[in-house]
Every structure is written in C-alpha cells, then in structure tokens.
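INPUT
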Amino acid sequence: MFNRDTWQEIWMTIKQHKLRTFLTVLGVFWGVFMLIFMLGMGSGLENAVFRDFGNRATNIMYVWSSSTSLPYQGYQPGRYPRLNFDDLEAIKQQVKGVGFIAPRTRQDAKVVHGETAETYEIRGELSQMIKVEALKVYHGRYISDLDNEESRKVAVLGTRTAEVFFGKDIEKAIGEYVTINGAEFLVVGIFGPEVIKPWTEDDQEAVVIPLTTMHRTFGLDGRVHYFAVSAKEGYRISQIEPQVRSLLKARHHVAPDDPRGISGFNLDAQFRKIRGLFDGISAFLWIVGIGTLLAGIVGVSNIMLIVVKERTKEIGIRKAIGATPASIISSILTESIFITAVSGYLGLLAGVLVIGGINFLMEQSGVESQMFYNPEVNLGIAVGAMILLTIAGTVAGLIPAILAARVNPVIALKDE
Amino acid sequence: MIALRDIRKAYATEFTRLEVLKGIDLTIEDGEYVSIMGSSGSGKSTLLNILGILDDYDSGTYHLDGTLISKNLSQKEAAYYRNRFIGFVFQSFNLLNFKTAQENVALPLYYQKISRKERADLAMHHLEQVGLADWATHFPNQMSGGQQQRVAIARALATSPKVILADEPTGALDSKTSHEVMEIFDRVNNEGRTLIIVTHEMDIAHRTKRIIHIKDGIIINQDE
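OUTPUT
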C-alpha cells in the first residue's frame, strides 16, 4: 500500500487538479477546524465557570437555621432554632460517612491596632473552613485544632484588614497584636480569597479566630451560625444531607415535614447540575462539529468518485496488464485517506493554534472575562479527531474504490 | 498453446439475446503468427477479449498453455493469468500519460511485485529491443504514434508472456510507421513468441503466417 508508485500517482492526481484538490482539502480542513475551535471555546466557557469554584471542595453541604413554619411539640411556628457546638458532635457520631464539619459563627466587632479602629466581621472557626471554601493562606498559618483546644487568643486577618492596620507590607502583621472587643489577639496568619470577585470581598475583610475563644470572649455560649459538612471518600454528600437534616430537626424540635427551620445547601448537587449543563453543551458542540466534518467528508467522497470516473480508462489499462481488484481498491483508499488525513491534520493544527493564540493573547494583555477563561484543546480530543479522520477517509474512499474495482476493462478500453 | 473448443458467447438484453460467438473451435500452436480478420460485428473483438481473459464465455473450453481458463474465474485469478500469460497491444496504445516510457513498460512487472530496481532494468532492456532506449525518460505525449506503439509492444513483452494479443495495432498509424511496427512483430515472432493480431487490413494480415476469417460468430476458413 505504501510504496513509491502509489505516492507518485497520488501526487500526480493532486498536481493535475490543484483547484479541485484545494476545495476538497478546504472542506475537511474547515470541518476539523470548527470542531476543535468550538470545543476549545466551550472549554473556555467551562473553565470560566469552574474557576469560580476554585479549589473549593464540592462534596460538601452547608447547614443553617431559619424560622420554622409549622407548630411542633408545643412550639409555635416562626421560631429560630439555635445550632450549637453539641450538634456537631451528634452529627459526627450518628451519621455515617461524614468527613469533617467546619462550623462558623460570625459577629461584627471593633478591631483596634494602634491609632486605627475599624469594625469588621469576626469569624469563629475550627481548622477546616479553609479547605471548604475557595480561600488560601497568604502568609503565616490558619487557625489550628490546638488553638481551639486551648482557646488561644490568636487571629488570622483578611488581606484588606491586614493592609488597613499594617500597610502594604502585610507580611509584617504576623507577630503583632490587634485588639478585638477589648481583648488582645496575636496575628498568626493572613488569608484571603483565591480569586478576587465582588462576592469574595467579605473574605478579604474578615478576621478569623478560634471558635472556642469566640464563645468565651464574646459570651456566645456554644452558638454556631452555620457549618459545612463534608462527605468521606466513597460517600456522596447528597446521601448524607437528609440524615443530617432530620437529625438536627429532631434535636431542635422542628417538625420532620417542615421545609424550613433547618436549611441546607448541597454544593454537590449544584456542582453536578452545572457539570451536566456543560456535558450537554459539549455534546451539542460535538454533534455540530461532526456534522460539519461529515459535510467535508462527503465532499472527499464526491471528488474521489470523479477521480475514479476520470481514471476509468487508466484503471482499465491497469486491469488489462494484471492489476488485481485489491490493488486498485488500495490505491484509491490510500489517496482518500491521504487527502482527509493531511487536510484534517492541518485543520487540527489551525484549531489548536487559534485556541492557543487566544489563550496566549488573553494572558498577555491581562484581559479578564467573567465568561471566558483559559480555552484549551485536550490531547484526548486531538487523538480522537485523528482516529475519526482516518476512519472518515476510509469511509469516503470506500464507495469510489469499490466502483473502481468493478471497472470492466473491455468497456473501459473501447476505442472511441 | 491455445485450444478453444466450441466457445459460445451471447449478450442478452432485456428483450433480445444476441449470439456473438456460435461455437468457435481454434487451435494455435506455440510460436505461431496468426491474424484474425472479420468485419465489424463478426465477433472478432469478443473472441480477442475471451482469448485475453478480459471477458468470460458461456460454454465450451479454453486451454492456454495447457491450463484450463475456466469460464467463471474470479477477478483476482483473471488478473493473475492476464499478467503472467498475456501481453496486450491496443489500437490506441493505452499508455499512461503521466508515466515515462520506461515506467509504462515497467508497470506489468509492478503487479508481479518485482523490485523497483529490477523493474527499471527489465523495462530498459525491452525498450532497447524496440529501439527506444534513448526515449526512456520521455512521456507518451512527447512521442510519435509509432514510437508510442513500440513502447506498448515493449510493455507487452516485459513480462515474457506466452501470447501477445494485438488489437488493430496499426489502426492508428500511417503506412510507414505501420511497417516499422510490423517489423518488430515479425522479429518478436522469429524469436519464438506466439502472436495473434486482429486486423481488417489485408496487407497486415498477409504478413502473418495464418489468417483466420471470422464471420457471424463462426470461423469460416483458415488460410495457411
């Protein structure tokens, strides 16, 4: 199949019909280019949406309390159940598959350092909230379990808070003291959101202290405003959520069928909904892309039919001097696969270059878009496209090749 | 070399059945120089196609060099026999225009899976035989009709076939070049090759050693 004569013939046909070959190549080129380009743009859209999730854990639910809507066990509706520290222990012991629980209690308080005094949101936490939300430690460390056990007076400042008290060089804040509600706290770290967005500004201005310390110094008596529950490996949070909710309802005298009282937000379900949306978009892009590609391939098949028609006499001569049907089929197929593969590869290359170029330009010029980020073509798609092309080339050449093999030399060689 | 026994062939259409060959008995010995004559529609082309294994026949037997050429060969087998046993020369030369003289001559050897180098050497040798060694790298459209036909003869000889079948080999040539081509055929026959020429030109036919007249699908006489 791959000897010099076959290639020579392919080259001759291409050279003799430059325009025709060019148009054929263009068809497949455009098909592959569009497929790759659209999938790349799709990935840009997808990356932009998932960027907002950041490194946020997704197998997670949030639980908080809200006013009840049904009377139960003698309690009137409209009551706010109060979540507390003991609830966490109860969940850990009674619900299977719970990984960790990250509570947060928040209260605004006056923070003072030197001459500066500002009111900020104070968050009482255990050690894990940093793992749950798209937050990161910029300098120093976060709140640890030991801080909570010993109720240490330590604080982790948000980046903007640190800037207000200690100037641009926020690293210098570590080791300094701030006064919160009259008590002195040692600054041990600086934290902030992974990406700065309008809705992450709160995180920049918050101050985090150990939850146990907060309970003592603020007189909150075990109060927890809300908490995140993670699922262990092998468990889905969607399975755990109803158990957690009904346990809390029982503990806080909320009617089991009350839709309110104990509220929750399951990130996993949201995440999977968005995933599903993008899987849908991706499937759509594949269908459109493959449709375009198919049109190109029909073009190749058409051209190959013309080639066979034009070469009927030549094929007749070849058969008369001993060409087998198999050798004729193989030469037509090789030509077809060659044309599709070359033009497809060029389309692939162009698609990757354009997507890569857009990504490069966006990074270079620092363009930030809410809707578009880091478009990419993954290797699997590229390899898949190449395999698809080879199959396509074979299919495109098959009918013309079979027709060529059927050429009757007696008719083909009739002198007219 | 060739033995045909009661060969019959008919072309059937939806409404009619046209009998082209109505029982051909023909024996051609090894090394013979034969011409087949007949008017158009006499069945001589069909006979040549059957001899050349380009067409099949309905009944009878055909032996070529002792091998039975069955009436229902597969395309692959037919290709094999054509390649090994038969060399064709056509009225319109039927060279491939995008190949040089040497490549044209080498083409049948390609289908015998002979190496490129050997093919080129053999092709060159046969071009020398027809006096066109200097034209090896020329393309057919750079050559005269006579030269093209000589290239075609070299191609027919390239595989050292048992039989050369020539269909009106001088039909497209003037009398001078016809003469040159026939001289080559004479020489090929003198070397012991079996040659069958289909023609309707008397002077061409008379150069051969036996003339077979065919009319309405049967052989009417065979002159020595």
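end of record. Chain A has a mean pLDDT of 86.
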